[in-house]
Amino acid sequence: MFSRRLSLPDRILIEIERAVGTALGSVEQASRPSPAVGVVEAALNDDERRHAAGLMRVNHTGEVCAQALYSGQAAVARHADTRAQLLEAAAEETDHLAWCAERLDALHSRPSLFNPLWYAGSFALGAVAALVSDKVSLGFVVETERQVEAHLGEHLEKLPAGDAASRAVVAQMKEDEARHGRHAREAGGIDLPPPIPTLMRHASTLMKAVAYRF
Q1: 160-205 pLDDT, tens per residue?
Q2: How far does CA 194 lie from the centroid of its chain?
Q3: Is there a contact between 109 and 56 (Cβ–Cβ < 8 Å)?
Q4: What residues contact 105, with CB distance under 8 A and at least 6 apart?
Q5: Where are the domains of the chain?
Q6: Among 1-10, 61-70, 101-110, which stretch is predicted with the lowest mean pLDDT?
Q7: Helix, strand or coil, per DSSP, at residue 116
Q8: Nearest-CA neighbor of 210 among 61, 106, 99, 94?
Q9: Residue 152: phi, psi to the nearest 5?
Q10: Among 19, 71, 85, 153, which residue is least crowded by beta carbons within 10 Å?
Q11: Alpha carbons 64 and 43: distance in angstroms, whole number
Q12: Is 53:107 a contact under the CB 8 Å cutoff?
């Protein structure tokens, strides 16, 4: 059996299908069990539950953005090795997306209403970065993962003390994101020039503020 090499239009159509599913809440099954499996659910009060749900909604939206960024980059990546690395990282981000969705359900909450908007913006950013060069594209991965790792560390401190299940998920996500950043750096990712990292932080701050509530 022969596999057909996908053309650029083919890859774009596949990514459009992926975008609709991811942004509207249709998540593929995780390839790894959630770190929350087997962790006893704590009895949280209403304020703690809402706060935990807000943080996990932010994390879920962050994974939507990561899926979009990697998908946009992979759709127009110049080299097959770069595309393969991006798709491998995206597969682990799919695990994160599924785990966050499970936590939101356990906390009786829902994903952000603005996920389609976040997805579209991140996909466009990834595609533009990849069109510049693979090194710039991988540089976006390095900087994105650096910032995501930092905010996940903040969430480990902010989650209610009794929510061990969410904490287990966030801790594993943080470990995975650090590895993605290292791999992107080793593959040739460059440091992005100012003011790009600062603009990315501002955009992330806006996303987190909106996703926490909506």
Answers
A1: 999 999 999 999 999 999 999 999 999 999 999 999 999 999 999 9
A2: 23
A3: yes
A4: none
A5: 38-213
A6: 1-10
A7: helix
A8: 61
A9: -70, -35
A10: 153
A11: 29
A12: yes
Quote the CA–CA distance of 175 and 166 in Å, as a whole number: 14
C-alpha closest to that of 112 among 202, 23, 206:
23
pLDDT in tens, 115-166: 999 998 999 999 999 999 999 999 999 999 999 999 999 999 999 999 999 9
Tell me how far apart the alpha carbons of residues 108 and 89 are, in angstroms, rounded to a whole number: 29
Query: pTM score, two decimals?
Result: 0.89
Average pLDDT over residues 13-22: 65
Residue indicated by tokens 């798709």: 87
Pick the CATH number of 38-213 from 3.40.50.300, 3.50.4.10, 1.20.1260.10, 1.10.10.10: 1.20.1260.10
Q: Which residues contact 150 (CB under 8 A, 6 or more apart)?
A: none
